[in-house]
Fold:
Amino acid sequence: MAPPPPKQGVLIAPRPPAKAAKPPHELEPIIAFYIFAAANIIAALYAPIQDCDEVFNYWEPTHYLNHGYGLQTWEYSPEYAIRSWTYTGIHALVIRLGMMPLRFFGFARSKTAEFYFLRTFLAVICAMCQTRLYSVVARTFNPRVALFLVFAMVLSPGMYHAAPAYLPSSFAMYATMLGLQAFMDWSGGIRTAQGLMWFGIGTVLGWPFVGALVLPFLAEEIFLVSLTGEGIECITRLADGLTRSVVVLAIQTGIETFFYKTPTVVPWNIVKYNVFSGGSRGPDIYGVEPWHFYIRNLALNFNLWFFLALGALPLILIQHLLVQKSVSKQTLLRSVVFVTPFYLWLGIFTVQPHKEERFMYPAYPALALNAAIALHILLANLGSTDPSRLVSKIPPQVKLAVVSVPLLLAFDAGVLRTIGTFTAYSAPLKVYNPLHQTGVSRPGDNVCLGKEWYRFPSSYLLPDRVRPKFIKSEFSGLLPGEFSEANAGGFGLFPGTWLIPSGMNDENIEDPGKYTSIEHCEFIIDSSLPGVAPTALEPDYITDIEHWEPLKCASFLDVSRTHLVARLLWVPDLPFIPEQFRRKWGQYCLLQRKASDKSTQHA
Structure:
């Protein structure tokens, strides 16, 4: 068993008697932090929002808390209450406090600055969690494994999108990294309580299902008790961690009750809806995917690293049972425990009919760790100089090629995928800028969203009191409504959080009351893609020059006309690229109603 914790507490490892020389593969943690932070901040500034759930379930409620209005989904109706005001409120508070010094000195007065401030804040928080995990892996497993962990996280398109995302699954990913490092680091004693606390925070404030990732570590704890007989110590650690998690749950429940004005346990509501709903309710009504969805998705977002992650457990078993030569500081049991969470998470969500990319976010650190361990084992054996082994007879140049070529291809694929996504789909973050220019818009104006409703990047990109509105399109599900702005007098703050809105349901049934007439639109967001034919409900407003004029347009990938390779990776628009592999473009525009059309309306 590990030694008892030092007097300074379990969070501080005992100081070594002398400063040991660092292995050549280990980065200083501060350097690792700079690398993580740089990659994440670039993503915060440039990565498009991939999921409308991020906007409507998190950015818009946060906008309501900070600015008094915003779009409301059915999940925030007190009748269902499956979204956490605690989680949203924390981020609203971060914006409020973080922007105060900037505004005091005359910087960043627009809501757009608030949007990018929060994304950057989340990127830095993620970098801190990544650095902590890196540091523990270097110390407890192997410095080279830690270095590969950095590569897997920084060079993967998956982490590029997950790191700055304002989603509970990203928050759960942060907590997963802190939970993993706590269970891995026994330098100051067994840290079961701390690990349980971090996974508990991820479960309560983030996503309830992330608690499944703690199961391998609990199994290890129980197995060790069966060997040592120290049941009292085990129970004490488990009780400590559980108590910390319950305290977090109690605080959250109090905050939710304040906002919803009724006793509310949001994590239970989430589990109840997603697991125990049936028929016309539950997540499956929003679409189902085949069993191989996550395999394809992870192969796209992590390329070589995903396949290495799948091979981690077999390689560990072969290394310990057949080769019988350790390549790390850990036992077979601990190594197996470290790599099990990724398999567990992938297995659980593969069998679920409803699948979305963000559901994998909490397991991204586990995937990166698996991949790093697998690559380390392969290189340790490939680099063997034992004359009794066949691999020692391979020329060094061949070994270098075998290693470097796949890694360079993985690097290229990751970078090309990231650049391709940004250049293809970033238009929704660009076209709203003219609205902030003097004289273009005014409070009370409406920016209408038709077929492009699901790419709306939130009210934070609109000027103050300029409202987003929906006009009818081919979509026939339930769109968000608006938070109540009623003056509730002495009945409590934020009445939109506890007044029951009209027209909400949990069956995705369309509510006509969510639409406005196009006559009430001063501006409209629309796209014109040559490969997509207009319809009666989704006309091409960009070509309707009689009524609309463009304020700003940006290129947007026409997926239907673009080759698969060019959709998956960035292909430069250069003359020598064959036509069939070139990316095909359409336009994504902010349109303003023509002055002549306005006068006709008001006549």
Remarks:
- The two ends are 85 Å apart (CA to CA).
